[in-house]
Amino acid sequence: MAKARVTITLKKTIMDAQGQTVEKALHNLGYEGVGNLRIGKYIEMELNGAPATELPAQVDEMCRRLLANPIIEDFHVEIEE
Amino acid sequence: MATATKMRFGIVIFPGSNCETDTWHALNDQMGAPVDYIWHGETDLSGYDCVILPGGFSYGDYLRTGAVARFSPVMGAVMEFADKGGLVLGICNGFQIMLEAGMLPGAMMRNVCQTLVCKYVHLRVETTDGPYTRAMSKGQVLRIPIAHGEGNYYADEAALADLKRNDQIVFRFSTAEGEITPEANPNGSLENIAGICNRERNVLGLMPHPERCSDPILGSADGRLVWESLLQAV
C-alpha cells in the first residue's frame, strides 16, 4: 500500500484574505516578524490496487479533477511506497 | 397575480441545498409557473424549459463550494441540457457549482472581508441581451439580497477580456445610483461582478438571490424581473 500527501495552496498571484487575517492576528500577538503567511489544504490518502508506476499520474489527475481548482490553486504531491 | 405560462421549471435539490422552497414560492405562488423539484440523483431533464441550481451549502461546501456537487449524477444531465440550449440558472451556491463544473468561466473565492455577508445590495444591469434580463433596462439598478461567504469572483485576464468582449457580464454590484465603486463591492469580487452568463446566453450564474425578493411584502420585488424576463423568453 502506498500513501499520498497532497498540499494545495492558492496561486501566488491570488490574494489570500484568510492568510492576511491570520498574519495580522500573529502581529497582534507580538510576532512582528511574520510575513507573507498563506493558508492551504493538506490531504492524505492511502492508495491500493494500482501499480506504483501509475500512482503519480493518478494522483495528479485527482488533483486536476477534484482536489484542487487549477484556476486559483497549485498543488504538490508526495507519494510514499 | 399569477401569470399564465407554459414554461416548466425544475429546481435541483442537492444534499445541503436550502433555497429551493423560496425559489418554488417565487416561481409557483408568485409567478404561477409550473415547478418540480429534481433530486440530485435524477438524470432525466426532459420536459423542462429551465433548470435552476438553488442556493445553499451543497455537500457542506466541503473541499470548495460546489466542488462535490459538480459530480452529482444530475450535473451530467444539466450540462447536456445546457449544451442543447436549455436554460440553466445558478443562484449563489448554484453559481459556485456552475463555476466548478466549467459551465461558466472563473472561480469563486472567500469574501475579502472574511465574513458571510447577508444584506440587501444594489445591482446594476449590464446587459439586457439574453433570456434573464430582457424585462429590465440596461443601467437599471435593482435592490436584491445577498447571503454568502464565498462570492469573491475571480477570472484571469484572458477570461475577463473574453467576458467583456462577449457582453457576458450581466450584473455588477453598484451604489443605489448605479455607480460601480469599491465601497459598493460587498465581497471583493473582480470588477464588482455579481453575475455572468455563457457565450450562448442560456446559462446564467449570479450571487444575489432574486427568489428572496419576488414578493412586495418581503421589502423588494425586484427579483420578479428575472422571472418576468424568463417567462417572456418562451
What is the CATH topology descriptor of chain A? Mth169, Chain: A
Morphology of chain B? globular
| CATH fold-level name of chain B | Rossmann fold
The total of beta strands of chain A comes to 3
**Topology order of chain A in helix (H) and strand (E) letters:** EHEHE
Most residues in contact, chain pair and counts: A-B, 12 and 19 residues
Descriptive notes:
The complex is a heterodimer of chains A (81) and B (234). Chain A is an alpha+beta fold and 81 residues long. Chain A has a single domain (2-80), classed as Phosphoribosylformylglycinamidine synthase subunit PurS (Mth169, Chain: A). In chain A, 31% of the residues lie in helices and 30% in strands. Chain A contains two helices and three strands; from the N terminus they run E-H-E-H-E. The model of chain A has no long low-confidence stretch (mean pLDDT 95). Chain B has one domain (9-232): 3-Layer(aba) Sandwich (Rossmann fold), CATH 3.40.50. Chain B has five helices and eleven strands; from the N terminus they run E-H-E-E-H-E-H-E-E-E-E-H-E-E-E-H. In chain B, strand 1, helix 1 and strand 2 (35-39) form a beta-alpha-beta unit. The mean pLDDT of chain B is 95. The A-B interface holds A 10, 14-15, 17-18, 21, 41, 66-67, 69, 71-72 and B 63-64, 67-68, 71, 100, 106-107, 109-114, 152, 154-156, 188.
Can you summarize this structure?
Chain A has 81 residues and is an alpha+beta fold.
Give the SSE layout.
The complex is a heterodimer of chains A (81) and B (234).
Chain A: E1 2-10, H1 17-28, E2 41-47, H2 55-67, E3 73-80
Antiparallel strand pairs in A: 1-2, 1-3
Chain B: E1 9-13, H1 20-30, E2 35-39, E3 50-53, H2 73-83, E4 87-91, H3 93-101, E5 107-109, E6 117-125, E7 141-148, E8 152-154, H4 157-165, E9 169-174, E10 193-197, E11 203-206, H5 224-233
Parallel strand pairs in B: 1-2, 1-3, 3-4, 4-11
Antiparallel strand pairs in B: 5-8, 6-7, 6-9, 9-10, 10-11
